[in-house]
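Figure 3 (text version): structure tokens given as input.
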């Protein structure tokens, strides 16, 4: 395994997360839950630096970002690792292959026959998205993608039928925002040998640059707990329900036919310590950055997960590592 690793334990959620990538559009699935991938990606540090601008500009998708420092030497083009935003079919095929190996061969989600035949994970959203890749140029050609994420901007989604998350949640409150720009994160995963803090940071730096370049105001996606029985996650789900729900103007809710209650325990029964022990690290990291949680969970039987909605207003990221556990909202204090 390259480098000294910090492993991430817990169920997948964010771009992964399942959720929660460019070949021709095809039938599909979403990201599976896992320790190091999610419908949304865990941003360990909310970087405000860009990748080397010329590499991002090559894709034509990210405008120049004057005044932002380049990444440290060796982490982008010219070194071993490169972060790339792309729509090139060869790049996306490689990302889809990585997704297939992680989601279906490692995590044992249920692929379609077409996915089995191609050895790739794909869905109808892939052709709409920009795709963020981390490549290791020390690996053989064709096998260099070691991390991936797909990014779907509001302007694109609204012209082509909407967001992936709308299959689980009613996004009307977000779509009604005036002057906002939404970014959905999904389909994230990392190669087994690269599940390190460094790889996560590279992915997040790419997302941060993309977000700044496109004027994103809110990022969102789904995060997952392992298993399809919400009762097994009663403590962390109840904690999220009682203390991190979105405010009224941003109150995204699970679709009524899919909604599973999260308030499985009364507020007075929630133990902060126990909830944090059981919380997927991906969800915990987003809470530190100021994320809100939607109302209601959704069971995804194809991937064997229980999903929650993550919403991260960009203007809250500046409070990185703020002591949100000391700022409990509501009328009770976790025990």
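Below: residues designed for each position.
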């Amino acid at each position: 395994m390259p480098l000294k690793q910090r492993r991430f334990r817990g169920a997948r959620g964010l771009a992964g997360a399942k959720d929660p990538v460019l070949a021709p559009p095809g039938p599909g699935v979403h990201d599976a839950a896992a320790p190091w991938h999610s419908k949304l990606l865990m941003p360990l540090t909310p970087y405000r630096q860009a990748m080397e601008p010329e590499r991002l500009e090559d894709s034509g998708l990210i405008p120049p970002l004057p005044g932002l420092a380049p990444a440290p030497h060796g982490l982008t083009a010219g070194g071993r690792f490169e972060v790339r935003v792309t729509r090139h079919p060869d790049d996306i095929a490689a990302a889809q292959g990585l997704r297939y190996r992680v989601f279906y061969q490692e995590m044992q989600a249920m692929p379609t026959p077409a996915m089995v035949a191609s050895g790739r994970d794909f869905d109808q959203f892939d052709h709409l998205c920009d795709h963020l890749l981390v490549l290791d140029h020390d690996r053989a050609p064709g096998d260099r993608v070691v991390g991936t994420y797909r990014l779907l901007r509001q302007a694109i989604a609204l012209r082509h039928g909407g967001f992936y998350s709308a299959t689980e949640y009613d996004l009307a409150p977000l779509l009604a925002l005036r002057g906002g720009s939404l970014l959905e994160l999904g389909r994230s995963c990392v190669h087994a040998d690269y599940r390190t803090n460094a790889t996560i940071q590279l992915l997040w730096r790419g997302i941060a640059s993309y977000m700044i370049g496109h004027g994103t105001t809110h990022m969102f996606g789904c995060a997952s707990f392992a298993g399809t029985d919400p009762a097994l996650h009663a403590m962390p789900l109840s904690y999220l329900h009682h203390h991190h729900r979105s405010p009224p103007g941003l109150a995204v809710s699970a679709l009524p036919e899919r909604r599973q209650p999260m308030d499985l325990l009364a507020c007075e029964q929630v133990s902060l310590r126990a909830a944090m022990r059981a919380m997927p690290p991906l969800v915990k990291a987003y809470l530190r950055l100021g994320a809100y949680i939607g109302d209601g969970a959704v069971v995804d039987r194809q991937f064997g997960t229980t999903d929650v909605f993550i919403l991260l207003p960009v203007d809250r990221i500046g409070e990185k590592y703020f002591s949100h556990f000391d700022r409990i909202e509501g009328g009770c204090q976790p025990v």
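The two ends are 41 Å apart (CA to CA).
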